[in-house]
UniProtKB/TrEMBL annotation, chain A:
Species this chain originates from: Desulfatibacillum aliphaticivorans
Official protein name in the record: Indolepyruvate ferredoxin oxidoreductase, beta subunit
Signal peptide positions (record): none
Annotated Pyruvate/ketoisovalerate oxidoreductase catalytic domain residues: 19-202
Coiled-coil intervals, chain numbering: none
C-alpha cells in the first residue's frame, strides 16, 4: 500500500469510447485498482443522453494526496485510452498536447451520419497517421476482434485495461486487477476477465 | 458493491457521489427513502434499495416526485428519519405539496435531495432546485466534494430535527455522477419505532395534528426556523477558508464548482493572492461569517452553477453589511466574468480568475490546438444522438412517421421526457414537434385536439412512456377523454424506466426492493377511463401502421400501446432474438428503388453500407438482433434467423 509512485501528480487519464462499450466499467476498475494502492482518485463521467451510440468519456485524476476536479483542464491529459479510434482524435483536440500518450482500439463504430451516407469516416491508415502526429507515443490494438474470440465484444474494455498495465505508465498489475475483479464481479466472472486482461497485455509490444 | 453497507468505519473507498449520499443516509440511520428516477439522481435510491433489507429500511420508487415527498413526509410525521430524491425537474412536480409541508413542519429528520444538471448533460433544461429553497424558506446545503457529500447529508438530518423542518441538500451531475475517495463512518444499528401522534393541541408541533394553518402563525414559525438555521451555519465546519489573510481576490464558491475553483487557483499559480471561501451552507447565508471575510478584501469573485443565486444573495448581504465592511466590487455572472449558462469547468474559472489578476490564461499549446482542431474538423464525423440498435422506439417512430406522412394532413406528434424525446432528431425521423415536461405531450395534445372549432384539421398525436404514463400521463389522458379531445395517444411501453436504468414503476410486477408487486395493466386502465385502446408490437410495422391509421381516423381520445421490451433491459441485454444477415445477391444496393432505405433513412447503428460491394451489411458487434430491418427491406434482402 502506498509504496508505488506516479510519474506525474496528478496523473490525468481519459478513457473514451462510444456508449455501450463498457467505458464506465473500465474507469471503475482502474479507479478501484489505484485506490487500493492508497492513491486519491477522482473520476468524472460523461453519461450520454443516449445509452448507445454517443461519445462517452471518463476523466480520471490520480494523485498521492489531493482530490482534483472531475474534469481535466484543457490540454492536460497524460494518457488517453480509446475504445474507438475516432474518439481518441476527438479527445486529443481538447485535452491533448505534444507529450500525450494514447492506446487506441482499431475497431471503428460508425456514427449514424456515416451510416446514412451524410458523413465520411476516414480509413484506419489515415487515422493512425493523424493520431501518431498528435502524440508522443501511441499503441494501436485490435481489442474488439480479440474480444469476439473470447465470446463477447464487451471484453474489449478489460483488454484495454490490460494493455494499459503493460505500458507501465501507471503502477497497476495483474494481482491488483484480480483482487478488484473478485471484489466487484465475484469468483464466476473473474477468470474470463483475467484472460481478457492478459490478452490485452500481450498486444502491447 | 457491498461496501455501501458493509464498509467499516475508517475504511477509505472509491464512491460515486450518489453512493456517498446513500452512505450518508445510512450513517444517519434513515428509515424511509422514496424518489422518482431521473439523471443524475437515480443511483441514490437504487443503492439504498439494494441494501434496504439489511439496513431495515423501506425504499420505494414512487409514481412521481410529489408522491415521493408525501411518502417520505409520512415517515417523518411518524418520527422516523426520511429522505426523497429526484432530479431538478422533480422539485417542480413536488412543489405543490412542499409549500404546505414547510408550513406544517416535520418531526423525524427529513431531507430533500434534488440533483441538478448544469449544462443539461442528460436533461432538456438546466433548471435549478436551489431557488426552491428560497421559495420554500428552508435551509440549503451543498457539498463541495465526495467526502462532504456523505458527511454533510448525515448532518442535514440533525439540522432538520433541530429546526423541525425540511432541509434541502442539493447535488449536481459532476458530484452525483463523479467518483472520489471517501472515508466511511459508522452505521448505527437501532430499531426505530414509528408512531403518528396526533391528539395534542392544534399548535403543538410534535403532538398535534399536522396542518399548515393558521398560516400567518405557521409562516412566522417557519421563518424563525430559518433564522435558527442561519445561526447554526455561522459555526458550520462545511464552510471553509483557504488562502492569505488579506487576499487580492476573495473567491466564493460552493458545490461542484469548489473543485473547479481549487484547480483554477492552482492553474493560475495564485495561491498567495486568491482566498477561497467555500460555502456548504448557501441559504440562508451566514452573515457574520460573510462579514468577517468581506472585511479582508475589496474584490470578490463568485463562482457557481448555473444562475447567480449565491451571487445575488451575497450582494444583498454585502449591501446590508456595507457600513461595517465597506463597499465591495463583485465579479461573477452579472459582470460577465462567469458564463450565465451551462456547466463550469477548471478552464472557465481559471480564465475568469486570470483576467481579474491581470494575466491571460491559455490552456493549450496554440500550435497543437490548431493542428488538432483541423484534424477533428475534417476527419472526425460527429456522433449524433441516436436510438440504440434494437430500440423499439426507432421502430415505433418509423411507423408513426410513415402513417402521418402517408395521411398527408400535416399530422404532428407532441412528446415528453424519456429516451423517446430523441424523436425530434433524425434518429426518430424528426417526428416529435413539441417537447416539454413529463406527461406534457398528452396534455398539450389534449389542447390541440380541441382546436377543431378554430379550423385546426391536422391529426394530433402524443407519445408517452410507460413510467411517464403513471407519473403524469394519466391525468392528461383523463382530461382528453372527458373533453372529447381528438387525439391519438401512443404509449411507448418498453417495460421499465429505460432512460435512467430500468427502475421499477407501477406497471411492473416488482418493486424497488425486489419484492413481488401487483402490476397495473396500462391498456386496462385506459379502457376503464373510456378510451378506445389497441395494443401492437412495434417490431411488426405493418400491423402497427394499419392499427395506428385506423385509430387516427376515429374521433375522440384513442390509445395505441406499442409494447416491446427495451433492448438494454436486463432480460434482453446481450441476447439476440434474431441473427441478421444480408443476401448480397438480392440487395439491389444503389439501384434499389428504395435508394438505401435501410441505412440512409432507417439509420440503425447496426447496419453499415459497404462502399465497395455497394450492398448493406450487418455490423455484428453492434446489431442487437431485433429483426426490424428485415421488416423494412423492400427487396427482402435482409433476413432474420431465430437464435435458438
Amino acid at each position: 500500500m502506498g509504496t508505488a509512485t506516479l510519474t506525474k501528480d496528478p496523473y490525468n487519464l481519459i478513457i473514451t469510447g462510444v456508449g455501450g462499450q463498457g467505458n464506465v466499467l473500465a474507469s471503475r476498475v482502474l479507479g478501484n485498482l489505484l485506490a487500493d494502492q492508497g492513491f486519491s482518485i477522482t473520476i468524472g463521467e460523461t453519461f450520454g443522453a443516449s445509452q448507445r451510440g454517443g461519445s462517452v468519456m471518463s476523466h480520471m485524476r490520480i494523485s498521492a494526496g489531493e482530490s482534483w476536479s472531475p474534469q481535466i483542464p484543457q490540454g492536460q491529459a497524460d494518457m488517453v485510452v480509446a475504445l474507438e479510434p475516432i474518439e481518441a482524435l476527438r479527445v486529443l483536440h481538447t485535452y491533448g498536447h505534444p507529450g500525450v500518450k494514447v492506446i487506441s482500439n482499431t475497431r471503428s463504430i460508425y456514427p449514424v451520419g456515416v451510416i446514412s451516407g451524410d458523413n465520411k469516416y476516414p480509413s484506419m491508415d489515415e487515422l493512425k497517421t493523424i493520431i501518431e502526429d498528435l502524440t508522443e507515443s501511441v499503441w494501436f490494438i485490435n481489442a474488439t476482434d480479440a474480444a469476439m474470440k473470447l465470446g463477447n465484444p464487451i471484453f474489449g474494455n478489460i483488454m484495454m485495461v490490460g494493455a494499459l498495465a503493460k505500458t507501465g505508465v501507471l503502477p497497476i498489475d495483474r494481482d491488483g486487477f484480480e483482487k478488484v475483479m473478485l471484489r466487484t464481479m465475484g469468483e464466476k466472472k473473474t477468470p474470463v476477465n483475467l484472460k481478457a486482461f492478459d490478452m490485452g497485455a500481450e498486444m502491447i509490444t | 458493491m457491498s461496501q455501501l453497507y458493509e464498509g467499516k468505519k475508517g475504511e477509505k473507498v472509491l464512491f460515486m457521489g450518489n453512493q456517498a449520499i446513500a452512505r450518508g443516509a445510512l450513517e444517519a440511520g434513515v428509515s424511509v427513502a422514496a424518489g422518482y428516477p431521473g439523471t443524475p439522481s437515480s443511483e441514490i435510491i437504487e443503492n439504498l434499495a439494494d441494501v434496504s433489507k439489511e439496513a431495515n429500511m423501506y425504499v420505494e420508487w414512487s409514481a412521481n416526485e410529489k408522491i415521493a415527498v408525501e411518502v417520505a413526509a409520512a415517515a417523518s410525521f411518524a418520527g422516523l428519519r426520511s429522505m426523497c430524491t429526484m432530479k431538478q425537474n422533480g422539485v417542480n412536480v413536488a412543489s405543490d405539496f412542499l409549500l404546505h409541508l414547510v408550513l406544517s413542519g416535520t418531526r423525524g429528520g427529513m431531507v430533500l435531495v434534488p440533483c441538478d444538471d448544469p449544462g443539461a448533460l442528460s436533461s432538456i433544461n438546466e433548471g435549478e432546485a436551489r431557488h426552491f429553497a428560497k421559495l420554500l424558506e428552508i435551509p440549503l446545503l451543498e457539498a463541495g466534494d465526495f467526502q462532504e457529500a456523505k458527511d454533510m447529508l448525515k448532518w442535514a438530518f440533525e439540522l432538520s430535527e433541530e429546526i423541525h423542518n425540511l432541509v434541502m441538500f442539493r447535488s449536481v451531475t459532476r458530484l452525483s455522477h463523479a467518483s472520489g475517495s471517501v472515508e466511511l463512518g459508522e452505521i448505527p444499528h437501532t430499531e426505530p419505532q414509528a408512531k403518528f401522534v396526533n391528539n395534542g393541541f392544534i399548535l403543538d408541533p410534535l403532538e398535534g395534528p399536522i396542518v399548515s394553518a393558521p398560516v400567518g402563525y405557521k409562516h412566522g414559525l417557519q421563518q424563525d426556523k430559518l433564522k435558527k438555521a442561519e445561526e447554526l451555519f455561522e459555526e458550520s465546519p462545511f464552510n471553509t477558508y483557504v488562502g492569505p489573510e488579506n487576499p487580492e481576490i476573495l473567491l466564493i464558491t460552493s458545490s461542484g464548482a469548489t473543485l473547479y475553483s481549487r484547480e483554477a487557483i492552482h492553474l493560475c499559480n495564485a495561491k498567495d493572492k486568491v482566498g477561497l471561501l467555500k460555502l456548504g451552507t448557501t441559504f440562508p447565508l451566514p452573515s457574520k461569517l460573510i462579514a468577517k471575510h468581506l472585511k479582508t478584501t475589496d474584490k470578490v469573485l463568485v463562482v457557481e452553477e448555473v444562475l447567480p443565486f449565491m451571487e445575488e444573495n451575497l450582494k444583498v448581504l454585502a449591501q446590508e453589511l456595507a457600513p461595517e465592511v465597506g463597499q465591495k466590487t463583485f465579479y461573477g455572472k452579472r459582470s460577465g466574468n462567469i458564463p450565465m449558462t451551462g456547466e463550469l469547468n477548471p478552464d472557465l474559472v481559471a480564465t475568469a480568475l486570470a483576467t481579474l489578476l491581470g494575466d491571460a490564461y491559455s490552456p493549450q499549446d496554440q500550435e497543437y490546438q490548431t493542428k488538432a482542431a483541423q484534424q477533428v474538423f475534417f476527419n472526425a464525423p460527429v456522433r449524433d444522438l441516436t436510438f440504440c440498435p434494437g430500440c423499439p422506439h426507432r421502430a415505433s417512430f418509423w411507423s408513426i412517421h410513415n402513417v402521418l406522412a402517408a395521411d398527408n394532413r400535416e399530422g404532428f406528434v407532441c412528446g415528453d421526457i424519456g429516451c423517446y424525446s430523441m424523436a425530434f432528431l433524425p434518429s426518430g425521423f424528426s417526428t416529435l414537434k413539441t417537447l416539454h415536461a413529463m406527461g406534457s405531450g398528452t396534455g398539450v395534445a389534449s389542447g390541440f385536439g380541441k382546436l377543431g372549432q378554430f379550423g385546426l384539421d391536422q391529426p394530433v398525436v402524443s407519445v408517452c412512456g410507460d413510467s411517464t404514463f403513471f407519473h403524469s400521463g394519466i391525468p392528461a389522458l383523463v382530461n382528453a377523454i372527458h373533453h372529447k379531445s381528438d387525439i391519438t395517444m401512443v404509449i411507448l411501453d418498453n417495460s421499465g424506466t429505460g432512460m435512467t436504468g430500468f427502475q421499477s414503476h407501477p406497471g411492473l410486477p416488482v418493486d424497488a426492493q425486489g419484492n413481488e408487486s401487483p402490476a397495473l395493466d396500462i391498456p386496462t386502465i385506459c379502457r376503464a377511463l373510456g378510451a378506445t385502446v389497441e395494443v401492437c408490437d412495434p417490431f411488426y410495422p405493418y400491423k402497427t401502421q394499419q392499427t395506428f391509421h385506423k385509430l387516427l381516423e376515429a374521433p375522440g381520445a384513442k390509445v395505441l400501446v406499442l409494447r416491446q421490451i427495451c433492448a438494454l433491459s436486463p432480460e434482453k441485454k446481450g441476447k439476440k432474438q434474431f441473427e441478421m444477415s444480408v443476401d448480397e445477391d438480392v440487395c439491389l444496393g444503389e439501384n434499389c428503388g428504395c435508394n438505401k432505405l435501410c441505412t440512409r433513412v432507417f439509420r440503425c447503428p447496426g447496419l453499415r453500407w459497404d462502399e465497395e460491394k455497394k450492398v448493406a451489411t450487418i455490423d455484428e458487434v453492434i446489431c442487437a438482433g431485433c429483426g426490424m430491418c428485415a421488416a423494412i427491406c423492400p427487396s427482402g434482402a435482409i433476413t432474420r434467423k431465430e437464435v435458438a
